[in-house]
Design a protein that fits this description.
The protein contains 9 helices and 11 strands. By secondary structure, the protein is an alpha+beta fold. A hairpin with a 3-residue loop joins strand 3 and strand 4. The longest helix is centred in the middle third of the chain and has 22 residues. It is elongated. The mean pLDDT is 91. The structure holds zinc ion (ZN). Zinc ion binds next to helix 9.
């Protein structure tokens, strides 16, 4: 099996469908999964991740430093607080097993009573392994106890940077498109510079391909656009200076001296853009002296020409 790409929607979809092949089970599970992620993100954005194993052995949702939901080929594992499970309906069922540790020894049992704690860091925690065709029956019972686990674990432990790097944006994209709800993504700290430098790197790769390579590559692509959150630094520009610069230009570009190419449909005024001669990011002043009004062509030329 080729190594999976954590940023790939396609790989996330393929692995999930391979693990949970029944459409019905997958549907009920992904909705449950999506609710748990939403809750974690509301409680503490940035303190969770979804790790999609590049070797295709598991998909794991972590809250803080601890695992919370895992998907495998044979079953899903869901962590919960034992005290929050208010039913014995899950005891002695063929498709569900409880897991804890006693003196570092793994205990698997079909009855919740007597199941030892799973994690020393989360008191009263246990896991249940649910075989895929048991998901429809058992998930409704385990949802609240799982949410209680998340409430405790996310506040009492912190995700590591290594875990953050293992986050699968592809899985989040898949889940968003599956549930038709825009899922929160945890890696919200990409800066604008990082975003554009990544983009430029791919652009340079594209330049290196031959004509036939670029043709094959381009026509093979048809993706739902990825979206990621980008943190950017914006400079405040005074609307008074903008307005003054435009009035002074009187509808004429100050570089090419041609009239503005069209009227702005919002206000009927000639369309000109204001430009800072010394960029604000380079320490330029937001002042009348540093501001000119340009047509869109000349504005682009100032930046890229
Ligand atoms: Zn111009």
């Amino acid at each position: 099996m080729p190594k999976l790409d954590r940023s790939s929607y396609k790989d996330a979809k393929a692995l999930t469908e391979k693990f949970i092949s029944s459409k019905n089970c997958r549907s009920i599970f992904l909705r449950f999964f999506s609710d748990s992620i939403t809750l974690a993100n509301e409680l503490m954005a940035g303190n969770w991740n979804v790790n999609l194993d590049p070797h295709g052995h598991f998909i794991r949702f972590n809250v803080g430093h601890v695992y919370c939901i895992e998907v495998f080929e044979e079953y899903v594992s869901i962590l919960f607080l034992k005290g929050s499970l208010k039913t014995h309906n899950l005891d002695n069922q063929a498709d569900i097993t409880f897991k804890g540790y006693r003196n570092k020894k793994k205990i698997l049992t079909t009855r919740l009573i007597g199941t030892p704690d799973l994690l020393s860091t989360v008191p009263d925690s246990a896991a249940c392994h649910i075989k895929h065709h048991g998901l429809t029956d058992f998930l409704p019972y385990i949802e609240e106890p799982n949410h209680d686990f998340i409430r405790y674990a996310i506040k009492n432990s912190t995700i590591t940077s290594q875990m953050k790097r293992a986050h699968s944006t592809g899985f989040i994209e898949y889940l968003s498109s599956y549930t038709r709800i825009s899922q929160p993504d945890t890696n919200s700290t990409t800066t604008e510079d990082e975003f554009y430098s990544r983009q430029r790197k791919v652009e340079r790769e594209a330049k290196r391909l031959t004509d036939s390579e670029i043709r094959d590559k381009a026509i093979s692509l048809k993706a739902i656009p990825k979206h990621i959150k980008v943190v950017s630094t914006k400079y405040y520009r005074s609307p008074f200076i903008v307005e003054y610069a435009k009035r002074k230009a009187n509808g004429v570009c100050q570089d090419c001296k041609n009239p503005a190419p069209f009227l702005n449909k919002e206000n009927g005024e000639p369309f000109l853009e204001t430009h800072h001669i010394i960029p604000l990011a380079d320490g330029g002043e937001d002042s009348v002296e540093n501001t000119i009004a340009l047509c869109p062509n000349c504005h682009r030329k100032r930046h890229y020409g």
